[in-house]
Structures are given as C-alpha cells and as structure tokens.
Design brief:
With 589 residues, the protein is α+β, with helices and mostly antiparallel strands. Helices cover 29% and strands 33% of the residues.
C-alpha cells in the first residue's frame, strides 16, 4: 500500500490554495518502527532534489522517535508513508463521487468513557501524570468514494486551515484538521497547540458569550499553558540558544462547529526532518504531561490503537519549508472492509468533569454529522396571487443567518429575484432550496388543507438543545422525521428537551395562553425561530417564556403557528406525555 494521490490546502505565496497531487515519481512506506527513519530521510532527500513531498506519520509510530514511548498498532494503517511528486495542480475543492455512511458508533459507551476519565483523575491525584489526552474511536459502515466524503468534511469544516486527503488505493485519510503541528519557514520552526474547546452556539450573541467564557476559563487557560510548556521543552531541544519564544498565548480560533483556545511557540533551528520529529512527535496537545509516562497510560486506558488519528499529515514544497497538521477531525476509510474510523477526545486534568469530557468529545464529532450527508438550506414560504410571498424579508433574514452559520455562499439578491419571479394561479407553498455554492431551486406545493381534529402528542425522546439543525432550517430534518415516524397517526408531535422544557412541534412553533398572556418558548430551549413567531414577537402579540409540561396542563388554550398555516388551535393528548418529561418539568418548577 503506497500513497497514490493527495489533495490538500497549503500556503502558496502567502495564500492557502487547494493543491492536487497525482502520479508520484517515488514513494516510501514504513510498516515497522525500524523503517520510519529511513522513510523520513528518503522523503527529505527527494525534496532536496526539487520535488514536492506529501505524506503522513501515524500516532502509533511514536516509539520510532523515542523507544520509551508506548503505543498500540493499527493493522491497516502504515506507520509512515510519503510520496514525491512533480509540480501539483492548483485546483478548487474537488467534489468527489457519491458515498454512504452508516450510523457512527463509539467504541466506548458513555459509562465506560466517564469511568476512564475518573481513572485518569486518580492517576493525577497520585502524581503519576498532570494531564492526559484521552480519546476513543467512532466507527461506521462506509460505501462509495472517500474523496466525496472528504469534500463533505472540508465543506463542514471549511474554516480549518489544515485540510488534507491522502489516497492509498483501498484506504484513504480524510482530515479536516484545524490544528498546526509544526511549520518551518526558513530557519523558523513554529508550533500552534490547541487545548480548550467550546461548541459553537447557533445564536451570534450567545456564541460571543461562549468565546468570552473560554478566554476567561481558568481551567482551560491552565491546561493550555501546561501544553505550551511541553511544546517549549520539545522545541528547545533542537533550537538555537535564546531563540525560543511564545509569540501568542491564549487566543481563540473559531471554526464551523467549535471554538478552540490556541497558543503559538517558535524557535530557530537547522534540524533535519527526522530530528524535528524526534524532538516533537507525537504532539504535546494530543498526549499529555509528562509525555512518555502519559503515552503509556493512554495505551492502557484507550485499548484501541489510534492509527493516523492524532498523528500528522503534511507537505514539503521544493524550497524545503514544510507544514504538518495534528491529524484531529480525521477519518481513516478502509474501502476493502467498508469501514470508516474517526477519533475524538480531549485533555483531562485534575478538575475535569467526566460528563463535560463526554460532551466535548461529541462536540468534536459534529463535523461528521454535517458531512455524512449533503444538505441544502430550506425556507417554506406561503405565496398567494394577491400578496405574493408572505413575510419574505423575514425568510431571507433567516436564510442569511443559516448561510453564515454553515458557510454557504448565498447571494440573497439572487434568491430574492428567483422568488419574486414565481407566478401561479392558486395559492402555493414555495420550498426555497439553496445549495452550498448558492444554487437556488424552487419547489411549489399545494397549500395544506386544515385538519378538523388536530390532536398533538409528545415525542418519547428529548431533543438536544445544541443541535444546529434544529436552530437553522435545512433539508436535514432527521430529528423531526424520526418523531413523525414514531406517531404517524398524530396531527403533529411536540418536542421537548432534557430539562423538561417544551420546544416546538415538527412543523410549527408553540404558543400557550395562560392568564391572557400568549407565551412561546425561547430559542434557547432548542427550536427553529419561525418567521411568524418573529413577526408576533416584534408586534408584542406574544412573549418569550420557558414553557414546561405543567404550564401546558394549566394553559387555557394552545396553538401551533407558522407562516404557512397561521394559527392552529390544537388539542393535547396528555396521556402520551412520557414520565421523564413530567418528572423533569416538576423538578425544574
């Protein structure tokens, strides 16, 4: 198995460009630890002959650089693999072919993961380690083109700088990494460790609050500083005396799904490629402190090899400068086995909360959930021959927010022109579909007929308040569709969160009348901000108030509202209320 082609983002004259590599003139691969140095030396020698070199080093190769390091070994991942290429082609992000991914399943269930976090904290309490980067694997069935999957990951994480795709024929690496491992520019060697993570919030105001909280978090700043000290120690081993500098400490970088706390360390050095790796690999941010002892604890606790995950992928242009990422947000696809593997985890310190660590791991997997199936932005607009599009400006405003959140290139003027050009003889519902590149499609449908018996039931499962596909309207309606499938005979299904707060239905916002006040749940409960809801809030006809199950039982009247159906007074089937909803509501009251 050797590297056949590659696609990655790399600086060209100071600007990041997509570069495509094909038809290697030579390649080298290490399947034994003793071969890793030879591979790196051969790759560097080819680069000195004026060739581009692209490749990867797996996390499992750590003992090749320091025999005291301990790691497990993934059988289908080379320890190191590089190939030499002539001049690459400057391109755009390739779309790739079709692919299908099954449900992602964690190698550790929540109970096991949190128990391992507590074991790490015990090790810290005993003075065995100070910080451990504990991780697990997610696995899914895979069929189709890995390049198509990579393209979807890249679109989902498009703000990341260190995107890379490596094709080994029957296996592939798909990396949407935001983290720089090492970069050489002349004699300057730079590392930018990330430590400290928060999930993005769909609401811009709340998202800004999250950034401030991350910057002010003593725990995250201390954790980041600890890793910076490790990186300084690593780089100091090969740097000129007095040249070591921390050029940036505790800055926040924001990506599509998470915010990360980042610092930057630089040193001046003439070290060759192998010596740089021997001093720095594996990266401090994905092992812990102290590195050697902690790597052993990682092998014992994780029980499954990391493979390429938390290793590195990079390129060396003919001038000898190089850039390698930390291979996080990275999937390894084995098309022979029909399987994709993706690693997630985080740094654990003495005051880490096991539940928070579990949640952080899944925050880092959000890129998968955006990437596993393509989606489009969606607006459903009521249209009549007399009035045209109802609440058009509010629909466009909501579409604009979704486009910004997901990174879609949308020309709102073009969307408006397309909608305003629509004509029909009868009232219609226009489904406005907008693709990643801004392509607009209209799907007219007949207006829905009123239901004479609108009985609404409760879903059996709570929603995740942080689910971005609830906050923004897209064709990814899995959560809504699943609820409807559980109750196909009901008019609609009410959704609720883990705090026992009512959210919305699968097609409309909720309004309850209590003591002559018309209340609707706030967006923070986990719901789509409907356009009719926004109009009524601005007019003062309704107010935002958290709504519990008890509130619903006490309500004088209950409605579902949206811009297509208007106000629909509903009957609640209280017998369908799950026990945990009533219990959570009572607890929060």
């Amino acid at each position: 198995m050797s590297l056949e082609r590659a696609v990655l983002r790399h600086p060209v004259d100071g600007v990041r460009e997509w570069l495509a590599f094909a038809d290697p003139v030579d390649s080298w691969e290490a399947d034994e630890l003793s071969d890793v140095k030879d591979v790196l030396d051969a790759a560097e020698a080819a680069n000195r002959r004026g060739l581009w070199v692209v490749g990867m080093v797996s996390y499992d190769a750590g003992p090749a650089f320091d025999a005291a390091l301990r790691s497990l070994r993934a059988e289908d991942v080379p320890l190191a693999s590089f190939a030499a290429f002539e001049t690459p082609t400057m391109t755009t992000l390739p779309s790739g072919g079709d692919f299908a991914i099954g449900r992602w399943k964690a190698t550790r269930v929540r109970r096991e993961y949190e128990a391992d976090i507590r074991r790490v904290k015990d090790l810290i309490a005993c003075g065995e380690t100070y910080q451990v980067n504990y991780t697990m694997r997610l696995e899914a069935d895979f069929d189709g083109d890995p390049l198509g999957f990579f393209a979807a990951m890249a679109r989902a994480q498009r703000s990341a700088d260190h995107l890379a795709f490596l094709d080994f024929g029957d296996r592939a690496a798909c990396s949407a990494s935001p983290e720089l491992f090492i970069r050489r520019s002349g004699r300057t060697l730079e590392s930018r460790p990330m430590k400290g993570t928060r999930p993005r919030h769909p609401d811009p105001v709340n998202d800004a609050d999250i950034v401030r909280e991350l910057l002010e978090s003593e725990k995250d700043r201390a954790e980041n500083t600890m890793i910076v000290d490790m990186v300084r120690n690593d780089l100091g081993r090969i740097g000129d005396t007095g040249s070591l500098m921390t050029t940036a400490l505790h800055t926040v970088e924001s990506f599509s799904t998470v915010h990360q706390l980042t610092s930057t360390v630089e040193v001046q050095t003439d070290a060759d490629l192998f010596d740089v790796f021997a001093a720095t690999f594996p990266g401090a941010s994905i092992t812990g402190a102290p590195k050697v002892n902690t790597a052993g604890f990682i092998a014992d606790l994780e029980r499954t090899p990391r493979g390429l995950y938390t290793g590195t992928i990079g390129a060396i242009p003919p001038d000898g400068d190089f850039e390698f990422n930390i291979a996080i947000r990275t999937a390894w696809v084995n098309t022979n086995l029909g399987r994709a593997t993706y690693g997630v985890g985080g740094g654990v310190v003495w005051d880490s909360d096991p539940t928070a660590e579990w949640n952080e791991a899944h925050d880092k997997a959000r890129v998968l959930y955006r990437a596993d199936r393509p989606f489009r932005l969606l607006e459903s607009i009521a249209w009549t021959p007399e009035c045209g599009s109802v609440l058009l400006e509010r629909h466009l405003d909501r579409l604009s927010l979704a486009a910004t959140h997901f990174g879609f290139d949308v020309d709102l003027d073009e969307v408006r022109r397309t909608i305003e050009s629509f004509t029909a003889d009868e009232p219609q519902v226009i489904r406005v579909l907008v693709g990643l590149g801004g392509a607009v499609e209209l799907e007219p449908r007949a207006m829905p007929m009123p239901d004479p018996n609108p009985v609404v039931v409760f879903d059996t499962r709570p929603i995740d308040r942080g689910d971005e596909f609830l906050r923004h309207k897209t064709t990814r309606r899995d959560r809504y569709d699943e609820a409807r499938e559980r109750f196909p005979e009901a008019y609609d299904v009410l959704l609720w969160n883990r705090l026992g707060q009512l959210c919305e239905s699968t097609i409309a916002n909720l309004v309850v009348e209590i003591d002559n006040e018309y209340r609707t749940p706030p967006v923070e409960a986990g719901l789509l901000p409907g356009t009719m809801r926004a109009e009524l809030l601005d007019r003062g006809d309704i107010v935002e108030v958290m709504v519990t199950y008890d509130d619903l039982r006490e309500a004088d009247r209950v409605w579902l509202i949206n811009s297509v159906r208007g106000w629909v007074e509903i009957e609640i089937d209280h017998a369908s209320a799950p026990g945990r909803l009533a219990a959570a509501s009572a607890y929060r009251s």
